[in-house]
Amino acid sequence: MNENILSKLKIKVFADGADEKSIRELYPCSHICGFTTNPSLMRKAGVDDYERFARNLLEHVQEKPLSFEVFSDEFPEMKRQAILINSWGANVYVKIPITNTRNESAAPLIATLLKDGLKLNITAMLPPEQVDTIRPHFSKQSQAFISIFAGRISDTGVDPEPVMRYAVESFKDCPHTEILWASCRELFNIFMAERTGCHIITVTHDILKKLNLLGRNLGEYSLDTVKMFYNDAHDSQYVL
Q: In the chain, what are the domains?
């Protein structure tokens, strides 16, 4: 990996996943500034005890932000879970979805939790209108990540960069609130997020494995690709 390329970027890279072994291995890496997970990633990783998983991670991840998500669909229970999750560690950010499954806005809950001093990660945000629904509840003291799912925006054929720039501009007067480019699809998204002024990008463990390709000579990479095709065809004993 070309560390020089990463060191020139202002954006912070957070590892996104729920594999405990991988998180422990990534924690000492200087280019990883934080961690996020969610119930879907945890289920995929086979996590069967939410709190035990979280507390095990927090024994190792103590100096970098770590986000855990509430999983209730009812706002009173979301609040109870948020307060509990917040108590697990000073570096914990509580993930609150922008709506529940009935498309009811979480803005009132977000306002309450911010007033109570919780550090939040507002998640599953896509359209700019969702930025507008929560912005009035933030102050200069609010500590939060605004997680906009740029990858899912681009999945619909829409350019996510204007949305990200809008969010950055909307929260420019909130020094402790950072805009996060979520649902990264490829390594180049890091550079896309950087040019929009985003503060953070979450990158899955699989994509993080490609960091060693940064700065790779394209001619050499082309040759490696040709060799791969040749070797696979040879090993498969294809004939015509």
A: 3-235 (3.20.20.70)
